[in-house]
Structure formats: structure tokens, C-alpha cells
């Protein structure tokens, strides 16, 4: 046998043995990451993390690349399945969000070590994993959140238990199963991301209290975020928002109208960053409304119809009726028996600042317009209707002091100037990169737009005897 053939045979045997070892240490037993029981799922993720954390850093890159390559052919299918299961949003917007999650979410490359050297020796900082992270995702962005969370958390060396929203359990399960298949085929590792067959509120509560969950990342309403914050664990909470779009007298109204209508209509307004109300100076209000109509908005003028919209879409407990969340503007207009022409993308109407449709995060293409006499009152009103969520806000202005003042005063995790607010999540109209993907926006706990660094521990190493190229003592 020639040397080349011997070498090839040896490599084959070693490869088979390594794969067998990996399968033995981290076998999914045919589960593909999905288990019937929370305890079993977390146990599998913990076992997987103990193996994963010892792998070379290059393996993390292989894992992330496998996820990106694996999901690439399925984006249209996933978007369609999300739309069919949840009944919310549009397929086109979901494809854009999936691309953003898959290709704009930073991975291991942002976890570069930091070093300080000098007469006191070497100080080094590195980013290390927490362990098994427990996450909860929304029905508004189910597969997108699985993908983005997985890239961020796996990049940090963690594994992930993902609690699906019951309203999107099928697409969430499919996404977790496929992700595990892609990773296993590329690396031989299993159960890096796990979930359960039938997610419930009780299963989420059990997960939050589980001793092997080292950290929580929760995307959802105030109640589930509150549960995470009182769990006793480190928690990243992505909470509610009510983003105002500020328009002052100096704004480019053509651009403002285009940006606001396009962004408020994107995925039928289910993004928490989407414009939920417009606060505009009196002198340009009529022209802005006219230009928004030209861009595809439908103006409701009748006060009785506006009140009917509020009564129809807001429940007695003050929350939006899920029947209309993420639905097309035409669906809502038809349900309200309001006649219209064409195919409007957003329903607009004038309302006072204390109107329920202004003060409620509606998550549907209803966009109230609040008029104020001057910029001072515009900014004050914008702060009031944002309700202290500190989530997202935008301004349309050519006045730099106004922009600066608004950015400071709004104090939001995302602030957008002369653009659609979805660009604050990394999405753009033309598909180009608008910064890192931001599907987990942790305003309540202060992390803001999360990355892989959010899900790591910053560790410090001191070596007093070395190491500096600049001096020697």
C-alpha cells in the first residue's frame, strides 16, 4: 500500500473514531434538540455545553457557518410558515427579517480579547460563556429570534434552551430541529439548541427556576420579563415599546412621509421598534398627511370611525385584540366597515395625545397623528407617549440642535434620524447592512441592542511578570 493510501486510511479511521466519540458524548438520541420534558431538554443542553466549551474556537465558527449555510435555501419557506401559523405580518417582511438575523448577527469575531501591558505586567480580558442560557421568544418573530439568539449565544460558547411562544410552536420546533441537523452534520455536535414539544406558561416558569439555567434572555410582554427579573438569575429583558416618530417644521416631508409609511407598514407593524404614532408640528401637519396619503396611507377623518377603530381593536383590559395584531390595513378597515379605495398599507388619523390608540402599543398598521404647536411641545409630547419605555424613537428634521435635543431627551435604546425605524434593527429597504442585527433589544435591563458580548462573562487575567514589548524591568 502506498504512503498516500495509508495516510488516507488513517485519516478515515481517526475521523470515524472522533465522530463516534462525539456522538457518544453528545448524542441527541433522535431528538434533533426537541424533548418532551423541560428537565430532559436542559440536561441535554448542559451535557452539550460541557463538550462545546472545550472545543477550539474554530469550532464555533464552523457552527455559525453551518447555521448560515443551512438555512439559506429555506428563508421563503420559513417566512411563509410563520405567516400561516401566526396569521401576522407579510411574507416579504419576514424574509427581510430572516436575512437580517442570519447574516447581520455578529458571531465569534466580535469576542476579541483585550490586553494591557506595562510595568505592572500583563492584564488580559476575555469573553467566556455563562453555560446554558434560557430564552423565551415572541410569536411576532419566532424563527428570527431562534436564529439570532442561537448565533449570539453559541458564538459565546453557550448552549441554549428556547421556550417557544405557543402561538408559533410549530415553526419554532422546525427551526430548532433543522438547526441541530445543520450543526450535527458540520461538527458532530448535538443539542446545542433545545426546546420541548408542547411549550406552555408553566414550562417557561419551570425553565426560569431550573438550577442548570445560568442566564435568561426574555423577549416578550411585561409579565414574562418581570418573571425573569425576579428569578434570581442574571436576566436580559427585551420589553415593550411605543415608538414616536417626531416631525418638525424643517423636515424633508417627502422623505419623512416615505420613511414613516414604509416602516409602519413593514410586517404590518408588529416590530416593537416600528413607529406607533407620529408627533408633528402644526405648521407642516397638513402637508405631511397629504404626502403620507401619496405614499400609501389611508386617512380616516370621521371621529366616530376613529372611535370605532379603538373600540374594535382594544380589549376591555386595555391590550390590543390579537384578532387584529399584524393584520393588513385592509383587513382592519373591512372589519370596521370603513370604505376605502386601492390597497392602503397603513391607516392614519388625527388624535389627541391621550387617546388609547396613541398610548397603546398596537402592533398593527394603525398610526395616529398628534399635532403640537411648536417643537418644544412636540418633544414633550413624544416623551409622554413613549411612556418611559426608553425603547425606540425617531426624528425627521434638518435642524441639528433639534436632532441633538431629541436624541438626548428621548433616551431610547434605538434612536433613528431621518430614516425608517426598522433600520435600527439592521434591516434596510435595499437589503444592505444597516449595522448589526438587533432582534433582542434589552431596554428594561439596559443592554440595549444585544450581541454575542451580551451573553458572555468578561474575565480578567493578571500576569505581573510579563508581558511587554515596550520595556523590560
Automatic annotation (TrEMBL):
Aldehyde dehydrogenase domain ranges (all copies): 36-421
Keyword NAD on entry: yes
Keywords: NAD, Oxidoreductase
Tree of life domain: Bacteria
InterPro entries: Acetald_propionald_DH-rel, Ald_DH/histidinol_DH, Ald_DH_C, Ald_DH_N, Aldehyde_DH_dom
GO molecular function, a single term: acetaldehyde dehydrogenase (acetylating) activity
Name the record gives this protein: CoA-dependent propionaldehyde dehydrogenase
Lineage, opening ranks: Bacteria, Bacillati, Bacillota, Bacilli, Lactobacillales
Amino acid at each position: 500500500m502506498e504512503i498516500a493510501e495509508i495516510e488516507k486510511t488513517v485519516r478515515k479511521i481517526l475521523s470515524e473514531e472522533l465522530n463516534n466519540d462525539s456522538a457518544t458524548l453528545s448524542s441527541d438520541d433522535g431528538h434533533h434538540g426537541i424533548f418532551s420534558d423541560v428537565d430532559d431538554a436542559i440536561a441535554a443542553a448542559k451535557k452539550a455545553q460541557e463538550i462545546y466549551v472545550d472545543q477550539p474556537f474554530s469550532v464555533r465558527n464552523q457552527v455559525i457557518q453551518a447555521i448560515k449555510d443551512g438555512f439559506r435555501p429555506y428563508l421563503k419557506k420559513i417566512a411563509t410558515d410563520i405567516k400561516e401559523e401566526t396569521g401576522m405580518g407579510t411574507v416579504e417582511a419576514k424574509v427581510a427579517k430572516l436575512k437580517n438575523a442570519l447574516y447581520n448577527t455578529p458571531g465569534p469575531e466580535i469576542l476579541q480579547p483585550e490586553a494591557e501591558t506595562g510595568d505592572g505586567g500583563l492584564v488580559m480580558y476575555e469573553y467566556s460563556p455563562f453555560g446554558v442560557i434560557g430564552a423565551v421568544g415572541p410569536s411576532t418573530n419566532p424563527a428570527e429570534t431562534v436564529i439570532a439568539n442561537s448565533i449570539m449565544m453559541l458564538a459565546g460558547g453557550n448552549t441554549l434552551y428556547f421556550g417557544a411562544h405557543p402561538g408559533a410552536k410549530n415553526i419554532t420546533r422546525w427551526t430548532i430541529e433543522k438547526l441541530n441537523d445543520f450543526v450535527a452534520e458540520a461538527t458532530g455536535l448535538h443539542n446545542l439548541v433545545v426546546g420541548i414539544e408542547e411549550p406552555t406558561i408553566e414550562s417557561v416558569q419551570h425553565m426560569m427556576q431550573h438550577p442548570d439555567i445560568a442566564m435568561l434572555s426574555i423577549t416578550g410582554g411585561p409579565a414574562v420579563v418581570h418573571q425573569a427579573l425576579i428569578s434570581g438569575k442574571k436576566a436580559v429583558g427585551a420589553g415593550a415599546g411605543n415608538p414616536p416618530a417626531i416631525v418638525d417644521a424643517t423636515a424633508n416631508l417627502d422623505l419623512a412621509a416615505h420613511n414613516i409609511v414604509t416602516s409602519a407598514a413593514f410586517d404590518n407593524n408588529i416590530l416593537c421598534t416600528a413607529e406607533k404614532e407620529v408627533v408633528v408640528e402644526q405648521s407642516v401637519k397638513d402637508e405631511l398627511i397629504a404626502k403620507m396619503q401619496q405614499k400609501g396611507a389611508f386617512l380616516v377623518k370621521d371621529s366616530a370611525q376613529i372611535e370605532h377603530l379603538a373600540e374594535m381593536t382594544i380589549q376591555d383590559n386595555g391590550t390590543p385584540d390579537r384578532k387584529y395584531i399584524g393584520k393588513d390595513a385592509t383587513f382592519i378597515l373591512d372589519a370596521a366597515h370603513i370604505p376605502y379605495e386601492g390597497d392602503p398599507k397603513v391607516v392614519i388619523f388625527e388624535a389627541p395625545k391621550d387617546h388609547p390608540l396613541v398610548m397603546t402599543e398596537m402592533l398593527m398598521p394603525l398610526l395616529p397623528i398628534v399635532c403640537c404647536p411648536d417643537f418644544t411641545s412636540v418633544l414633550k409630547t413624544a416623551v409622554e407617549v413613549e411612556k418611559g419605555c426608553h425603547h425606540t424613537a425617531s426624528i425627521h428634521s434638518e435642524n441639528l440642535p433639534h436632532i441633538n435635543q431629541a436624541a438626548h431627551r428621548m433616551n431610547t435604546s434605538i434612536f433613528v434620524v431621518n430614516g425608517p425605524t426598522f433600520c435600527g434593527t439592521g434591516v434596510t429597504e435595499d437589503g444592505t447592512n444597516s449595522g448589526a442585527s438587533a432582534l433582542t433589544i434589552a431596554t428594561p435591563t439596559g443592554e440595549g441592542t444585544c450581541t454575542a458580548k451580551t451573553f458572555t462573562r468578561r474575565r480578567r487575567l493578571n500576569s505581573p511578570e510579563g508581558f511587554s514589548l515596550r520595556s523590560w524591568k
